[in-house]
Amino acid sequence: AISAPPQLDSDRMERAFDPSRQNSPDSTGEYQTLTLLHTAPGGLGMALEEELAMLTREREEDLEVSASETPVSGQDSDLLSLFRQKEKDLVLAAKLGKALLERNQDLTKQYDKMTKDLNDKLE
User: Fold this and answer.
1) Which stretches are tagged as biased composition: Basic and acidic residues (predicted)?
2) Beta bridge partners of 17
3) What are the tens digits of pLDDT across the range 86-110?
4) Cα–Cα distance measured from residue 11 to residue 89, given in angstroms and rounded to the nearest whole number
């Protein structure tokens, strides 16, 4: 029987500063990244955390670029800004979902290989 790994939620994540994640020499601040409080074997792992940090940086850079664009006027600018934000959130969620799916597939392959190896040893 296959049991699903425990699911992670936002209560198990914390914000951390990592100066090594700066991608330009002229940046003055440190990027915020999400790290897992308790990464158990079979957890998301460092590769996925790095992917999430990269996607978060891309989103922050896109927000800075869109903020510098000339807005329309009045309520239209608010709606346009909200629409852009929602669109970027959706793209970020899609990229993160894809990364999670790929990680899940990798873990499934590892599990299958370990099961096969164990069965071979038991025979």
Assistant:
1) 9-18
2) 32
3) 999 999 999 999 999 999 999 999 9
4) 20
Q: Kindly report the length of the chain.
A: 123
Instruction: Give the whole-angstrom CA distance, residue 69 versus residue 123.
Output: 67
Quickly tell me which residue has 């510098």 as its tokens.
68
* Residue 17 phi, psi dihedral angles, 5° rounding: -100, 135
- Which DSSP string corresponds to 23-41? -STT--SPPEEEEESS--T
- The helix/strand/coil state of 65 is helix
pLDDT higher than threshold 50 for residue 47: yes
pTM, 2 dp: 0.42
3-state SS class at 16: strand
